[in-house]
Amino acid sequence: MKLIAEFLKMKILFIIFYLSFLFYPAKAVTTKMFKVLDTCARYRLGEINANESIEKLKLKLTNSSKNQPKDLVRKYCSVFTPNQKIEF
Q: Whose CA is closest to 53, among 63, 74, 39, 67?
């Protein structure tokens, strides 16, 4: 009986340990998604400019034309709002 109790205790601890690793990545993805949507919303509202948005979104500019930062942010943010016709 004692052996069965120990086995069940270890099994429960293993399940709790395993589940803790499943929940952490989900939280990290949700946090990252929120930061992207927040940055896109702040850019759209004019609280931050295109260069600040690029820095926060960790995007890379290929060349330094004047309109390219705005186009890059607009295209990137449009991916996160595909069902809405929002002009960035």
A: 39
Single pTM value for the model: 0.61
Flag whether 18 is in a domain.
Answer: yes
Q: Quick one: DSSP state of residue 68?
A: H
pLDDT at residue 85 is higher than 80: no
| Cα gap 28→74, rounded to integer Å | 24
Secondary structure (DSSP) of 3-20: HHHHHHHHHHHHHHHHHH
- In 1-88 the beta strands, taken as DSSP E runs, fall at none
The number of beta carbons lying within 10 Å of the beta carbon of residue 73 is 25
How many structural domains is the chain composed of? 1
- Is 33 part of a structural domain of the chain? yes
Distances (CA, A) of 59 to 19, 37, 64, 73, 74: 33, 14, 13, 9, 12
Is the separation of the CB atoms in 53 and 45 below 8 Å? no
